Amino acid sequence: MNPSPDDEKHPSAMTNLLQYPAQPPPSMGYGLSPPYPPYYNQPAAGVNQGPSAHVPLAVVVTEPQPAYFPDFLCYSILTMIFCCFPFGLAALVFSLQTRQANLSGNYAAARKNSSLAQTLNQIALGLGILSTIVCIILMVLFFTSAFSVSLT
């Protein structure tokens, strides 16, 4: 005998829905949690299971940017020509050594030569300014004395 579609809707056919489940319901609170499937499974050899949950991290190591120390080359040329030739010439030599050390990657020597070139340039500039002031004062004194002698 074939059951009719109406028999499935009969309340007696729903008795299996009212039975208790085979496992107890999960506890509400701090009790034991129900077992869950593992979060990440290692794929079998040769099996592609799509993207994994763990992405390998790439480590990128960058070298620090090299510090090029100033060579003060233009400053050295100008102090050699216009201020004090001996100190300007010495500053020019250390400026060229600074440039060479920067290009070869010897940053300790470049820093030392750069500092020395700057110091020599400042000394040459100071002596140039001082000698210019002394020359102006001597010229003023000479011309005032010469002018006062010619008037008397």
From TrEMBL:
Compartments reported by the entry: Membrane
Broad class of where this protein is predominantly found: membrane
Keywords from the named record: Membrane, Transmembrane, Transmembrane helix
Keyword RNA-binding set for record: no
Domain of life: Eukaryota
Stored InterPro entries: CD225/Dispanin, CD225/Dispanin_fam
Membrane-spanning parts: 72-94, 123-149
Cellular component terms per the entry's GO annotation: membrane
Pfam families (UniProt xref): CD225
Family, similarity comment: Belongs to the CD225/Dispanin family.
Name the record gives this protein: Uncharacterized protein
Species: Phrynocephalus forsythii
